[in-house]
Amino acid sequence: MKTVGLFLVFLFSSLCAAEELSVAAASDLNFALQEIAKKYQQTTGNTLKLSFGSSGNFFAQIQNGAPFDLYFSADVDFPKKLESTGFAEPGTLYRYAVGKLALWVPNGSKLDLNRGIQVLLDPSIKRIAIANPKHAPYGRAAEAAMRKAGIYDKVSAKLVVGENISQAAQFVETGNADIGLVALSLVSALTMQGRGRYIAVPSDLYPALEQGAIVVRSSNKKSVARDFLQFLKKPEAQAIFRKYGFQSPDVK
Predict the structure, then answer these.
(1) d(CA 224, CA 144)
(2) Which of 29, 115, 194, 229 counts the most CB atoms within 10 A of its CB?
(3) What single-letter DSSP state applies at residue 244?
C-alpha cells in the first residue's frame, strides 16, 4: 500500500507541475508543430496551446500585448524586430528551420507540374492562390519567385490572396483556385493524405525562408518556453521538421 501511495503522490505532483505554453505559430507549421507538440508532451508532460496564422498578424498582436509565451515566425525578420524593440526575451532568438515553396494542385488537375513555375502561364489557369505578401513571408517568397521567373506581370491579375499560407492551400483544395504557390510543409502532408500533387519550386527563385522563434518578453513561463526551444534541437524534433520538407538549421 505504501508503494501505491508514493506512486499516486508522484503522479499527482507530476500533473501539478505540468505547464501549458501558449504558442503563436506561422501556418506553415500546422502539421509539423502539432506532431512535435505530441512528442514534447510525451517526453515532458507539458502541453502546447497552438494558434496558427500569419506571421505578420501575430507580430502585431504581440506588440499589442497578446498573451503568448512563444512566437514562431515563417521568417527571422519579425522575431528580430521584436527582439530589437524589447518584446522578445533577450538571447532566445532561434533559427529553427528553413522553409520551401511548392506548386500545389488538386488530384483532378491536368496541369503538368514538370513545367515548373512556367506552368502558371497555362491558359487554362483562371486563379492562382498565394498568401498575402503584406504580412505572410511565403506570400512575399511566391511573389519574388514569379518576378524572378519573369512571369509576374503576366499572371498577377489571376492571383487570389489568402490571409495566410494555410488559407491559400485551402483555396486550391476547395476549387477556389486552380493552382497555388504555397508551403512545401503543408502540401507534402496533404499529398500524404491523397489530396493533391505538388512540385518544389527551385530555391534560387526566392530569398531563403529562414524561420525564427523567440520567447515573448511578457511570458511568465520563460524557463519552460526556453526548454521547449532546446527540445526543438533534439534529433527527434529535427526529424519531424525534415519529414514535412523543412531544411534543418545548424544545431549548436
Answers:
(1) 37
(2) 29
(3) T
